[in-house]
C-alpha cells in the first residue's frame, strides 16, 4: 500500500544529487577545522544569512541550545513565546543544561509575540529577580501553523530587545519557507537578530544537520559549547555535502509545498466533521481538528490504515506537513 506521509518534512529523503555529493565529498577532521566541505557549507550559510560566521550542528535543537549557552549564564532568564518549539519540544535543554529560566509571553495565532508583552516581561534590576538576557523568536512558527514573521516585525522586536540590553536569537528552522512565502531573501528576515539557526533536514531535504549563524566571536563560543555537549564531528563533510546541495538547489521549490498545503487545507475545509482554523495557510504546515464523533487516536489509526500518516497534537488536534515527497496528486488521494 502506498503511504502518504504528512507527519513532518523531516521524513524527506536526500536527492540523487545529494547522494552523489556525499559519495564524492572531500573530508577532513572538522574538530580541527580541517574538513573542507564543512568549511564550505559554513561559509555558504553565513553568506546567505549575511552573518560573519556559521557553525554546522547535528540538529535544530542543538543549534538552539548552543545559542542559549553562548549568550546567557546560569541563573539568567530568557523570553520565549508560549508556543515556542524551544519550550515544547527541546526536552527542557536550555534549563537542564544552561541553567536558565524560560519566561513565556503568549504567541498570537500568527506567531508574533506582542511587543508590549515582551517589554513587560523584561525584568528590572532587583535582587529578587533573574536577569533577562535573551529574546527568542521563531520563524516560521511550528505550533502556530507555519505562520511567518515579517522583516518589519522581527526588526521591531529586536530593536526593543536591544534597547533593554537583551540579545535576540531566531529559531529559523524553516526560515527559507518564510522567505519564499514573503518573496524576500532569508537574510532580510534575520537582519536584526544576533543569532539564527536553520535546518537542512526539513523542507530542504538534506538527511541531517542545522546551521547556527552570528558573529565570529559568537560562533567561536558556540563551537566550544558544541564540543562540550558531544557535538564535535570528525569527517562530517559526508553529510555537509548534502547541505550544500540543499542550499543551492532546494529553496525555490518550497513554493510547491506551500501550494500543496493550501490545496490540502481547502480540501479539508470541505469535509464534514473537520474543523479548520480561520487563518490562511502561510507555508507548508496545516493544522486541523476533528469533531468528537471519532476519538483522535482512533482517527489517527484509521487514517494510517488507509495509508495517510499525520501528526497527532493531542485530543482532537492534528498537523499535516507538505514536502518534496508529497505531490499534488498525493494530496488529492489523501483527501479522498
Model description:
The chain is an alpha/beta fold. It has 14 helices and 13 strands. The chain has helices at residues 16-24, 36-49, 60-71, 85-88, 93-96, 115-121, 151-163, 175-182, 186-189, 216-228, 237-249, 254-269, 296-305, 328-335; strands at 4-5, 53-57, 77-81, 101-105, 132-138, 167-171, 195-199, 210-214, 274-275, 285-290, 308-309, 311-314, 317-321. The protein has a 7-stranded mixed beta sheet, with helices on both faces. It has a 4-stranded antiparallel beta sheet with strand order 9-10-13-12. Strands 1-11 form a two-stranded parallel ribbon. α3 crosses α10 (216-228).
Helix-strand blueprint:
Blueprint: E1 4-5, H1 16-24, H2 36-49, E2 53-57, H3 60-71, E3 77-81, H4 85-88, H5 93-96, E4 101-105, H6 115-121, E5 132-138, H7 151-163, E6 167-171, H8 175-182, H9 186-189, E7 195-199, E8 210-214, H10 216-228, H11 237-249, H12 254-269, E9 274-275, E10 285-290, H13 296-305, E11 308-309, E12 311-314, E13 317-321, H14 328-335
Parallel strand pairs: 1-11, 3-4, 3-5, 5-6, 6-7
Antiparallel strand pairs: 2-8, 7-8, 9-10, 10-13, 12-13
Helix pairs in contact: 1-11, 2-11, 3-10, 12-14
Short synopsis of the structure:
With 336 residues, the protein is an alpha/beta fold. Helices cover 40% and strands 17% of the residues.
Amino acid at each position: 500500500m502506498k503511504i502518504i506521509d504528512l507527519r513532518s518534512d523531516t521524513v524527506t529523503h536526500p536527492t540523487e544529487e545529494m547522494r552523489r555529493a556525499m559519495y564524492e565529498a572531500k573530508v577532513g577532521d572538522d574538530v580541527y577545522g580541517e574538513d573542507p566541505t564543512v568549511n564550505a557549507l559554513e561559509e555558504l550559510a553565513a553568506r546567505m544569512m549575511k552573518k560573519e560566521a556559521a557553525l554546522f550542528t547535528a540538529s535544530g535543537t542543538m543549534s538552539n541550545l548552543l545559542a542559549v549557552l553562548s549568550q546567557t549564564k546560569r541563573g539568567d532568564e530568557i523570553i520565549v513565546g508560549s508556543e515556542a518549539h524551544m519550550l515544547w519540544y527541546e526536552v527542557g535543554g536550555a534549563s537542564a543544561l544552561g541553567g536558565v529560566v524560560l519566561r513565556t509571553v503568549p504567541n498570537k495565532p500568527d506567531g508574533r509575540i506582542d511587543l508590549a508583552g515582551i517589554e513587560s516581561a523584561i525584568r528590572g534590576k532587583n535582587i529578587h529577580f533573574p536577569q533577562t538576557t535573551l529574546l527568542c523568536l521563531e520563524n516560521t512558527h511550528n505550533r502556530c501553523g507555519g505562520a511567518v514573521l515579517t522583516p518589519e516585525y522581527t526588526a521591531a522586536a529586536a530593536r526593543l530587545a536591544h534597547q533593554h540590553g537583551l540579545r535576540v536569537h531566531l529559531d529559523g528552522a524553516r526560515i527559507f519557507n518564510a522567505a519564499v512565502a514573503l518573496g524576500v531573501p532569508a537574510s532580510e528576515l534575520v537582519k536584526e537578530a544576533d543569532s539564527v539557526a536553520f535546518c537542512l533536514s526539513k523542507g530542504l531535504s538534506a538527511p541531517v544537520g542545522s546551521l547556527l549563524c552570528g558573529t565570529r566571536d559568537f560562533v567561536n563560543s558556540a563551537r566550544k559549547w558544541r564540543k562540550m555537549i558531544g557535538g564535535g564531528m570528525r569527517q562530517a563533510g559526508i553529510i555537509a555535502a548534502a547541505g550544500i546541495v540543499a542550499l543551492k538547489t532546494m529553496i525555490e521549490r518550497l513554493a510547491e509545498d506551500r501550494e500543496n498545503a493550501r490545496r490540502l487545507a481547502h480540501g479539508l475545509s470541505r469535509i464534514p466533521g473537520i474543523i479548520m482554523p480561520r487563518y490562511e495557510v502561510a507555508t507548508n504546515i496545516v493544522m486541523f481538528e476533528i469533531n468528537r464523533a471519532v476519538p483522535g487516536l482512533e482517527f489517527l489509526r484509521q487514517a494510517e490504515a488507509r495509508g495517510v500518516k499525520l501528526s497527532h497534537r493531542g485530543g482532537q488536534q492534528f498537523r499535516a506537513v507538505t514536502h518534496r515527497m508529497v505531490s499534488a496528486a498525493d494530496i488529492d488521494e489523501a483527501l479522498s
